[in-house]
Q: What sequence folds into this?
């Protein structure tokens, strides 16, 4: 639901002999919308609830000079249809692995935010050889009662909000800082989301949320061997810093950093700072060989 812009990525950063993007790829039994830009070490970007390729626009633009970035629409979001049957985090992690395989990418630095960070955790657990490193923004090992109640609140808000605009304005209260609400940034995000032509059905958003309500990686996170950077927003009222810290403490040697003045999605509000942090982390991982 939080598409930043529908502006196409700059084609100048795409290799001349590379397949055309964006495009659909067959992965894990479904057709998944994928975009790819840039050159360099591979990066896979995984979005959260309702988020599509466009939610990563500021990373696709800002990091393509150093990395080959791949982003995709999760099942039931944007241009990727929701197939029948239950939606699970495990299935969505297999979707992500399928995207990498379909594009011939043996491993990648993986970054996910919110629900996408949980998919990234599961990807590292189910397909460890495909994960070069992990960046987990606004994450958790298992929803505590507060976060679970918030997820259930969003689940019914989409049904009872009097309009799509009202839903977005209410939902975004917990996603972006008061600063972004007061300086007009959130108004811009709302207008762009309303104009986005590939809207998510409420039932698909609810199915996505349901997959996370009781998902628990607490006992399995110590199995992750990939280098990990866990980022929290100091003003995030949902996946609060203590939940993010719990993930960092469970993954061996994970790095934990708090962006004190930011909320749930700092990669959109302060992209230059966020991009610099993850770029420094990826450079360090690459330097280790």
A:
């Amino acid at each position: 639901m939080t598409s930043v812009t529908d502006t196409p990525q700059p084609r100048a950063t795409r290799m001349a002999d590379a397949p055309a993007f964006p495009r659909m790829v067959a992965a894990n039994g479904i057709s998944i919308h994928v975009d790819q830009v840039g050159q360099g070490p591979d990066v896979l970007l995984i979005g959260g609830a309702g988020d599509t390729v466009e939610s990563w626009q500021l990373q696709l633009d800002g990091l393509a000079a150093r990395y080959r970035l791949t982003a995709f629409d999760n099942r039931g979001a944007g241009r990727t249809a929701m197939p029948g049957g239950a939606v699970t985090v495990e299935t969505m992690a297999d979707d992500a692995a399928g995207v990498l395989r379909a594009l011939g990418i043996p491993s990648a630095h993986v970054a996910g935010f919110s629900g996408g960070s949980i998919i990234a955790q599961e990807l590292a657990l189910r397909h460890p050889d495909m994960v070069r490193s992990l960046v987990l923004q606004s994450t958790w090992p298992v929803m505590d009662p507060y976060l679970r109640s918030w997820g259930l609140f969003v689940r019914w808000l989409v049904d009872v909000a009097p309009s799509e605009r009202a839903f977005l304005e209410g939902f975004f209260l917990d996603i972006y800082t008061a600063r972004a609400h007061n300086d007009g940034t959130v108004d811009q995000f709302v207008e762009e989301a309303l104009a986005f032509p590939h809207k998510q059905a409420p039932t698909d958003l609810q199915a996505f949320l349901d997959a996370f309500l009781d998902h628990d990686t607490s006992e399995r996170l110590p199995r992750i061997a990939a280098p990990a950077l866990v980022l929290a927003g100091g003003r995030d009222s949902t996946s609060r810093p203590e939940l993010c810290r719990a993930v960092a403490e469970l993954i061996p040697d994970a790095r934990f950093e708090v962006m004190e003045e930011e909320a749930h999605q700092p990669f959109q509000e302060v992209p230059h700072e966020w991009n610099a942090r993850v770029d420094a982390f990826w450079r360090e991982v690459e330097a280790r060989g």
Summary: The mean pLDDT is 93. Residues 11-284 form a domain with the Rossmann fold fold (CATH 3.40.50.1820). Residues 3 and 55 are 5 Å apart (CA to CA).
